[in-house]
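Researcher: We plan to redesign the surface later, but first we want a full-length starting point. Tokens attached.
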């Protein structure tokens, strides 16, 4: 479970950078065991959108 937490945190932090590149996302994925990830610019845009939503959920004060 800790590995999933670490991977999620690393990806969220990587994707928080406004100028993050596909190569940086691939490096974060490789650091957590992915073999030869192929991330496109569109993937980065989609992942950044999802990361923003997830970040707001994780930072919420209440569960409602």
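Model: Full-length starting sequence:
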């Amino acid at each position: 479970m800790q590995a999933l937490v670490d991977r999620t945190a690393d990806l969220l932090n990587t994707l928080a950078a406004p100028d993050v590149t596909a190569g940086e996302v691939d490096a974060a994925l490789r650091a957590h065991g992915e073999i030869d990830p192929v991330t496109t610019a569109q993937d980065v845009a989609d992942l950044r959108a999802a990361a923003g939503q997830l970040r707001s959920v994780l930072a919420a004060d209440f569960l409602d």
